[in-house]
Amino acid sequence: AIRRGMNWCFGMQSKNGGWGAFDKDNTKHILNKIPFADLEALIDPPTADLTGRMLEVMGTFGYPKDDPVAVRALQFIKDTQEPEGPWWGRWGVNYIYGTWSVLCGLAAFGEDLNQPYIRRAVNWLKSRQNMDGGWGETCASYDDPALAGIGESTASQTGWALLALLAAGEVDSPAVARGVQYLIDTQKADGTWDEQQFTGTGFPKYFMIKYHIYRNCFPLMALGRYRAQRRLKG
């Protein structure tokens, strides 16, 4: 069953090495410029966040690094990295989300985490940490990339940033310690977190989504991963 599922996923890889959500090689951007284009979302091009997820799956199931599918995917990841280090996120707001998905994928697949392109992403995340220890990013970063990683701290985006840093081997870094403390300090008495901001993406720039589970599941994932890694270090 696993082999069949993986073979189906491999069949969805686009020619450029990446994956979209629903289709392959659906990359004719000119279609988004026609007058009746639905919120510039008529196509489903491959994105770094989804490609990172596929690398994570391949790593989880032990596929070798020299697998042709993985080689093409890794090249797609490198080709789509922003100059400062992050990756654009299609399905969550935004560069914090994309960078989290990619770094988790690279780590699971066994990439050397000391490579310069990975360290650029790590350093970018650290540079975007807010004074309160959390991370946040405004939806406006889809319109203005200068706002990448900038915004009021949120529980979900802090969770993404922490998961990304933990995947990159940063469990002992001060940035991670501050992020963990932010989540502890902002947790409510009933165990949940508040989050007023929209951190889910429907159609970039036009349609944002508030997934209410995000504010709880991602902080818990980050705290759990942090505790597990700390225990492994003794």
Can I get a quick summary?
With 234 residues, this protein is mostly helical.
Essential attributes:
2 strands; mainly alpha; Glycosyltransferase; two-stranded antiparallel ribbon
Task: Please write out the topology.
Elements: H1 2-11, H2 48-60, H3 68-80, H4 95-108, H5 116-127, H6 155-167, H7 174-186, E1 200-203, E2 207-209, H8 214-232
Antiparallel strand pairs: 1-2
Helix pairs in contact: 2-3, 2-4, 4-6, 6-7, 6-8
Report what the structure shows:
With 234 residues, the chain is an all-alpha fold. The longest helix is centred in the last third of the chain and has 19 residues. Strands 1-2 form a two-stranded antiparallel ribbon. Helices cover 46% and strands 3% of the residues. It has 8 helices and 2 strands. Helix 2 runs parallel beside helix 4.
